Fold this protein.
Amino acid sequence: MNGEKRLTDQQKEFVKKELGLTEEEFFCRKEHDYDQLIDDLADIEIEETIKAGDNDLSPRGIMAVEMVDFIHGPYYPEDDDEW
């Protein structure tokens, strides 16, 4: 998991609104209930992807993706030309 220990204000707001967690609860869950946290964020990303259709992902969907990256690390290298 990513070694970050602080959330930005925007991340804190998202975690509170979407997951019902404080920053402290988020980090506790990140360490002890990692899979469920990823699943919850994936559900948001999927919901927003379906809503978007051929359009761009909403800010809510983007934040869900960013939070998964925050927890897990990116699924692909940012400078990988194959992606």
In short: The helical segments are 9-19, 23-32, 34-52, 59-72. Residues 48 and 61 are 5 Å apart (CA to CA).
